[in-house]
Design brief:
The complex is a heterodimer of chains A (266) and B (294). With 266 residues, chain A is an alpha/beta fold. Chain A contains seven helices and 13 strands. Chain A has two domains: 215 residues, HUPs (Rossmann fold, 3-Layer(aba) Sandwich), CATH 3.40.50; 32 residues. In chain A, a hairpin with a 4-residue loop joins β7 and β8. The termini of chain A are far apart. With 294 residues, chain B is an alpha/beta fold. Chain B folds into two domains: 149 residues, Rossmann fold (3-Layer(aba) Sandwich); 122 residues, TPP-binding domain (Rossmann fold, 3-Layer(aba) Sandwich), CATH 3.40.50. Helix content of chain B is 27%, strand content 26%. The chains are: A alpha/beta (266), B alpha/beta (294). The interface between A and B is large, with 81 and 92 residues. The structure holds flavin-adenine dinucleotide. Flavin-adenine dinucleotide binds next to α6, α7, β14 and α9 of chain B.
Chain lengths: 266, 294
């Protein structure tokens, strides 16, 4: 069995965001980028566990991104993945999630894949599009909001759990498939020093953007995409309006009045 | 046009009729009982191709809606954006969509050419009933489904929600953190939630401590919510909590510590003991709504 996991190199959660001069995205200058994207790390962990549980042949990690995104691939290699593929984009490319999905699908199509894992959404644009888009582009079933998965290799069935509004479903579906993970069964492992050193020597294939675009041409759907008009950071909050009071009752009265008459949310 | 997909839909069809759409197409089929993106997108694409000039597809930004639309967009050669808080027509066709990114710390405005497939964030749009609506529902034949759809089988559904609304859809959320001092004091959070018709949320600290179930956790490793009103009680406001709730329309913080970071994102702050403020707040709201004080 071959497992592929897709990850994205994103700004660290605590990074201070500044808008780029184009007004269309963040200014990447001085930003710390990481793969420490809750969902993608969980997907990588689950891909590695699939390999351990059912003796998958290989786990390959793929990303679409500028040169610096190689760090994300090395990170997942140091978690234990075997090989990596980097679809390299220009540093300032701003790609629609459907465009990213087409580039990934074009390349994945040429690689062996039984299960393609993705995180629920990237921590930056939070689109959550790639999983089910890859399913459609590769002609595979896709399952999203998955919290647990166990493959049965003889029946080619995945036994899964997924989040649904108000609860959880235990369900089965066929594979090869694309699985978008909400949360893994275990915390993502931290790479050890020997594994970090080993990861430097693992095979990493670079795919030039033009090659990936050429491979994507034969895919279903139209190569149309959204374009960003603007990226807006809210003005810094000036801080809360504080309720002054002597007794809890007075605090309650004043707060309810504000919520009702000023904020109009009650 | 409203398209309904699933199995056993007569009550749902009645419910949407009340909002007065021009048409309601109902794809009611036992093979659609288990949701699958591949099955539902095949049927939705068929519905779209039965229309003379489809302009846009909208769905709720629920787990199913968000999973369905990217697949549908590819099947119909369209575009996609999730979790919109605003949509307006785009010149030349399509939509201009506003949506939160970076955990609500910023917003992105995206132009989507035809056919835009957009999921809408719960609570961001008001639904108005149209009294006296006379729309008829029309059955929509499902026809063939891909084998990868019909072989998805749901073995069981575990309901984790009690009588409180689903957190991600709740218009009001009352959330408690370690400042509530112990699991027994969450009764105060629940009582305020009851008089407000609100959902109950929690910080990771109290979920990890076993005071509250994981389904209530708000934040980076929990749920992302954007209710009209979020009341944070005894929550310090760590960044991992803020990314899950900072796009709420109005935030109230009740915290003993005037320097707590939660006050930086709150609209209204009360510096005080949540254990005494909450009962007073519950009593005031119950009185103003004519409800018994729980
Ligand atoms: C990778 C990662 C992911 C994480 N994901 C999440 C997540 O999804 N969600 C999340 O919430 N956290 C998450 N965290 C944890 C987060 O960093 C904080 O530790 C957590 O949010 C703190 O919870 P708290 O505010 O309840 O507790 P504390 O930080 O202990 O704050 C308690 C607050 O209560 C106040 N207080 C005390 N007594 C009273 C009283 N009587 N009345 C009023 N106020 C009182 C205190 O002043 C204090 O501000 C994550 C952390 C990491 C590293």
């Amino acid at each position: 069995m071959d497992v592929i996991v897709c990850v994205k190199h994103v700004p660290d959660a605590e990074t201070r965001l500044r808008a780029a001069s184009s007004g269309k995205w963040i200014d990447p200058d001085g930003v710390k980028f990481t793969v420490n994207n809750t969902y993608d790390e969980a997907a990588a962990e689950e891909a590695l566990r699939l390999k351990e549980k059912c003796g998958a042949k290989s786990v390959r990690v793929i990303t679409v991104g500028p040169a610096r995104a190689e760090e994300a691939l090395r990170y997942v290699l140091s978690m234990g993945a075997d090989e990596a593929t980097h679809i390299e984009t220009p540093p300032d490319a701003q790609l629609d999630p459907l465009t990213i999905s087409r580039l990934l699908a074009g390349v994945i199509k040429t690689l062996p894949h039984d299960i393609v894992m993705v995180g629920k959404q990237a921590a930056d644009d939070e689109a959550g599009v790639v999983g089910s888009a890859l399913g459609a582009l590769l002609g595979l079933p896709s399952y999203a909001f998955v919290t647990e998965l166990n493959p049965d290799a003889t029946t080619k069935t995945l036994k899964m759990r997924r989040y649904v509004e108000g609860g959880e479903e235990h369900f089965n579906g066929p594979f090869p498939a694309v699985v978008s993970l909400l949360k893994g069964a275990a915390d993502p492992r931290t790479p050890t020093l020997p594994n970090i050193l080993k990861a430097r020597k693992k095979p990493l294939t670079k795919v030039p953007l033009a090659d990936a675009q050429a491979k994507a041409q034969a895919l279903p759907g139209a190569p149309v995409a959204g374009t960003v008009r603007s990226f807006v950071l809210p003005p810094p909050k000036t801080g809360a309006k504080m309720v002054e009071f002597q007794t809890p009752e007075e605090a309650a009265e004043k707060l309810v009045k504000l919520l009702r008459e000023e904020a109009k949310v009650l | 046009m409203v398209g309904l997909l699933g199995s056993g839909l007569s009550a749902a069809a009645e419910a949407v009729r009340a909002y007065g759409p021009d048409r309601v197409l109902v794809a009611d089929d036992p093979r659609l009982k288990a949701f699958s993106a591949q099955g539902y997108s095949a049927v939705a694409a068929k519905m779209l191709s039965s229309l003379p000039e489809p302009r846009a597809v909208l769905a709720p930004a629920t787990a199913m809606g968000r999973e369905l639309l990217p697949r549908l967009a590819i099947e119909v050669g369209g575009t996609v954006a999730p979790d919109a808080t605003d949509v307006v027509p785009r010149e030349g066709g399509g939509l201009v969509v506003t949506r939160p990114v970076f955990g609500g710390r910023a917003t992105l405005v995206v132009e989507l050419p035809t056919i835009p497939c957009v999921s809408l964030r719960p609570n961001a749009f008001a639904a108005e009933k149209s009294p006296g609506a006379s729309t008829k529902t029309e059955p929509f034949p499902v026809g063939d489904l891909p084998a990868t759809a019909t072989s998805v089988v749901v073995e069981k559904t575990v309901v984790t929600r009690g009588d409180t609304p689903e957190l991600t859809e709740a218009p009001i959320i009352v959330s408690g953190g370690r400042g509530m001092k112990g699991p027994e004091n969450f009764a105060l959070v629940e009582k305020l939630a009851r008089v407000l018709g609100a959902g109950v949320g929690a910080s990771r600290a109290v979920v990890d401590a076993g005071w509250r179930p994981a389904s209530e956790q708000v934040g980076q490793t929990g749920k992302t919510v954007s209710p009209n009103l979020y009341v944070a009680c005894g929550i310090s406001g760590a960044i991992q909590h803020l990314v899950g709730m900072s796009s709420s329309r109005c935030i109230v913080a009740i915290n003993k510590d005037p320097a707590a970071p939660i006050f930086k994102v709150a609209n209204y702050g009360v510096v005080g003991d949540a254990l005494t403020i909450l009962p007073a707040l519950t009593a005031t709201i119950a009185r103003s709504k004519g409800l018994p004080n729980p």
